[in-house]
Amino acid sequence: PPPLADDLAGEMEDVDLDEEQGAWVTEEEDEGVEEGMEAQDDSEVTFSKHTASVFCVSLDPKTNTLAVTGGEDDKAFVWRLSDGELLFECSGHKDSVTCTGFSHDSTFVATGDMSGLIKVWRVDTKEEIWSFDVGDLEWMEWHPQSHVLLAGTADGNSWMWKIPSGECKTFQGPNCPATCGRVLSDGKRAVVGYEDGTVRIWDLKQGSPVHVLKGQDGHQGPLTCVASNKDGSLILTGSVDCHAKLVNSATGKVVSVFKAESIVPKPSVGETEETESNSVESLGFCNVMPLAAVGYLDGTLAIYDLATQTLRHKCQHESGIVQLLWEDSSPVVYTCSLDGAVSLWDARSGKLISEYRGHSAEILDFALNKDASIVVTTSGDHQAKVFCVQRPDR
């Protein structure tokens, strides 16, 4: 008879390990992510028109009834949250759609792909009204008060267009990618972070930087995310250097530096300090209390008290945090993570309020509606999902 090993190998060949993951869990082992991921689905609606990873989602700000999603299948779709019904496809992209967004009044929707092709569609007529090719796209955002679109590209430029006329302005950064950007709430300035660790606060009218943060004031690694508080007086910048910096937007001065070193969890078994890579992945300000949240790739959610500039809570996730968002009118912060879960945290107590699952792969982006009753997620499992998160006791 053939040796046992050959026999087993023969049998194993037709076993798809991913599918059979559950079968390999021994009694004493913890049931792995895959088991839980398959079993539980807390979502109300699943949108499954994408045929590859879904990278981004935005909700229409006016009615909060529509979503736009973009994916690795070079497609973007505008669809209805209530039932997942497709409204229209944003056709014509030839590369992964990584940026999507509705204008402030939900009149227009913009879709941008990695190669830099940006298209704008009129939502009511479902027609493309404008397109432009910028070269490798890093981020894209609508102006908070007008039909103006901003984007940052790999050559270090940031672009601003009036829509639909297409009048254009460029803001020349350093010779490296403009990795993230945000228009401040006054609508007159934008903060842009770059791969070389520098941050610029631009005057959109003048087209010139009001403040440049570099060297000690900048970061030691590429910027990953920027955020500002409601009135735009404070900015947070985050980087792969694991630091988050609190900046006064009027003076351009760094008010405080939040360092991950002070909150490092012990390396897990079999992991040495060297192999553990960490970075700030997402950050944001609470609207109703002087709090800020910083989410890290190692799964740490840090809640900082801005009044005292101290760490208030550390909320540990099983896996890396992809993004975080604050509820509009309460001190509740939402996170989505690489293990496919959406978690709600009470920033006052640092306690987990609830958790929602349903994806069988990592969540790549998520959006929250205005009254914080609905979360829409996108995932590597090719799906977008709608979760109802409203609880009577909150």
UniProtKB/TrEMBL annotation:
The keyword Nucleus does not apply. It is found in: Cytoplasm. InterPro entries: Apc4-like_WD40_dom (IPR024977), WD40/YVTN_repeat-like_dom_sf (IPR015943), WD40_repeat_CS (IPR019775), WD40_repeat_dom_sf (IPR036322), WD40_rpt (IPR001680), WD_repeat_multifunction (IPR051179). Residues 8-44 have a biased composition (Acidic residues). Residues 1-44 are annotated as: Disordered. Residues 285-363 form the Anaphase-promoting complex subunit 4-like WD40 domain. It comes from the Eukaryota. The keyword Repeat applies. GO terms for cellular component: cytoplasm. WD repeats lie at residues 47-89, 90-131, 186-212, 314-355, 356-394. Pfam families: ANAPC4_WD40 (PF12894), WD40 (PF00400). Its main location: cytoplasm. Keywords: Cytoplasm, Repeat, WD repeat. PROSITE patterns: WD_REPEATS_1 (PS00678), WD_REPEATS_2 (PS50082), WD_REPEATS_REGION (PS50294). Plays a role in angiogenesis and cell migration. In smooth muscle cell migration, may act through the RhoA pathway. This is Angio-associated migratory cell protein. It comes from Anolis carolinensis. The lineage of its organism: Eukaryota, Metazoa, Chordata, Craniata, Vertebrata.
